[in-house]
Design a protein that fits this description.
With 495 residues, the protein is an alpha+beta fold. Helix content is 38%, strand content 17%. The protein has 14 helices and 21 strands. The strands form seven sheets. Strands 8-7-6-3-9-10 form a six-stranded mixed sheet. Helix 11 runs antiparallel to helix 12 and helix 12 packs across helix 13. The longest helix has 34 residues.
């Protein structure tokens, strides 16, 4: 009896040991899954987000090699410019800060959007970072300052890349914690014949300004940065095509789902939803959804009115995909039927836009400013045919009369920002890789007494995004419906 009990006890003990050993083996086996997990940084990578990035891409659509090449382009541009303009300068320091988190109210942040110049040269999506490029006569290096790893902060706000991973991820020569930027800059500033390049006006990081401004030699690099960004690479062009495709489809679906009595805010919500559901990160800007006489306010963004039967609605909306923006405007009658005055003005705007698209890269369209001058003349002539401008007006008088109907430029550059590279003159001759808008319009306030009453309170605009390709030919990137018959088919759900 005693031996039997001992045997049973031993067997039970053995079973417990076996169970513990099996559990340990399972734990070791399961842990291998975690050991093989990809490293997590402070932004998506191909390993963690293969649905967003391809292999070798640092940010969506752009490789680390391309971003390194951009830095080299800026360095060589600064060097070449300085040889002529600052011959005594031996060293340069380019400082490009990231954006910082901004707050709606206490502890409630706005959606973070990275500074375009910073991401263009670093590929880094993290806030509170700084990119520095040191240039000497024979060498150069890029240094990235990143927020330090902090378990408590990462618990609340997500993983940080940390300076220890900066060189590996971003391809810079050196990376340090942001805690070290002050002593780093103080040391570099001691160099003789040093020129510092920093955009004080547009910097979100105000603490950098007094640190850098102590130098007598101080220049703004933004004019050179915008010149580089003005010409899009092949990879950037693909991103522009994609954001314009998403935006075009979103606008078409929004037109299809509109109807008299819908709130302008619902149209806003629809174009936002259609953009995001098809891959856009967000809308590129607060959209204009202007029905009826609201459309005569060019930047109407209240979007709070109930639409009426017989109204047209002007929708100006674009989305952001991979950091690149589309910008599209369409105007349509909510009930699927143009009134005679609406149709007359719509065809004027559409014909003007078609004329402008035909003359780009030809006389009258070599630059955006030339395109604007052409717009004023063509719009004036069409409005004369519609008896809205006196027939006797010609030349500058006619252009000035047309400008009263469309008091804005007809085009701006487009890219990472909606009004991209604003320091690049619109009088520059267009070159391959330029992306820009073409957006004529007509706006007739309700109290304008010099036009027939039936035209008062009407506002229209048609806007497309276009590109100059390598053969100096025009490529229209946006494809939303704009022919009157196509719009009506969309509204009536016939396509």
């Amino acid at each position: 009896m005693i031996i039997g009990r001992l045997q049973r006890g031993f067997l039970n003990s053995f079973k417990n040991v076996s169970i513990r050993l099996k559990t340990t083996q399972i734990s070791i086996k399961d842990s291998s899954k975690y050991l093989n997990q990809p490293k997590i940084y402070g932004q998506p990578t191909y390993q963690t987000h293969p649905h967003l990035l391809k292999r070798n891409e640092l940010v969506q659509g752009i490789t680390s090699d391309e971003i390194s090449y951009r830095r080299l382009q800026l360095i060589e541009t600064i060097r070449a410019y300085s040889l002529t303009n600052f011959p005594s300068v031996k060293s340069h320091l380019i400082v490009i800060p990231s954006a910082v988190k901004k707050y709606i109210s206490s502890s409630i942040p706005y959606v973070f959007r990275q500074n375009s110049d910073f991401i263009y040269f670093s590929g880094c999506l993290e806030q509170d970072s700084v990119l520095v490029m040191e240039i000497s006569e024979k060498s150069h290096k890029s240094v990235l300052f990143l927020r330090p790893k902090d378990k408590n902060q990462e618990l609340w706000d997500g993983v940080r890349t940390g300076s220890e991973n900066g060189v590996e991820l971003f391809g810079v020569e050196e990376s340090y914690s942001t805690y070290h930027i002050n002593p780093y800059l103080e040391k570099v500033k001691k160099q003789k014949n040093l020129l510092i390049w920093y955009d004080e006006k547009n910097s979100d990081q105000s603490t950098l300004t007094p640190l850098l401004k102590t130098s007598d030699n101080f220049e703004n690099p933004t004019k050179f940065i915008h010149t580089l960004r003005w010409i899009k690479s092949d990879a950037e062009i693909e991103l522009m095509r994609k954001t314009c495709e998403i935006g075009s489809n979103a606008v078409n679906e929004t037109i299809r789902k509109s109807y008299p009595g819908i709130n302008e805010h619902q149209i806003f919500a629809e174009v936002d939803y259609q953009s995001r559901i098809n891959g856009a990160y967000m809308l590129a800007y607060p959209p204009v959804v202007a029905s009826g006489r609201n459309a005569t306010t060019i930047h109407y963004i209240n979007n709070s009115q109930i639409t009426q039967d017989g109204d047209m609605v002007l929708l100006d909306a674009g989305c952001e995909y991979g950091g690149y923006s589309s910008d599209i405007t369409r105007t349509w009658p909510l009930n699927g039927q143009f009134t005679d005055p609406q149709r007359i003005l719509y065809e004027v705007v559409l014909n003007v836009q078609k004329d402008l698209l035909r003359c780009i890269s030809n006389e009258g369209g070599y630059t955006l400013d030339e395109l604007f001058d052409t717009m004023c003349m063509r719009l004036g002539k069409y409005l004369q045919e519609a008896n809205l401008i006196p027939k006797e007006k010609t030349g500058h008088e006619l252009a000035r009369a047309a400008f009263k109907f469309c008091p804005h430029h007809v085009s701006h550059y487009l890219g990472m920002d909606v009004h991209d590279t604003p320091l690049v003159s619109r009088s520059n001759k267009l070159v391959p890789g330029n992306v820009f808008t073409v957006e004529p319009g007509i706006y007739i306030p309700s109290d304008r007494a010099d036009v027939p009453e039936e035209f008062r309170g009407l506002g229209l605009r048609i806007e497309d995004d276009v590109m100059i390709n390598n053969n100096m030919k025009l490529e229209i990137l946006t494809t939303s419906a704009k022919e009157p018959d196509d719009l009506i088919k969309l509204i009536k759900n016939e396509v």
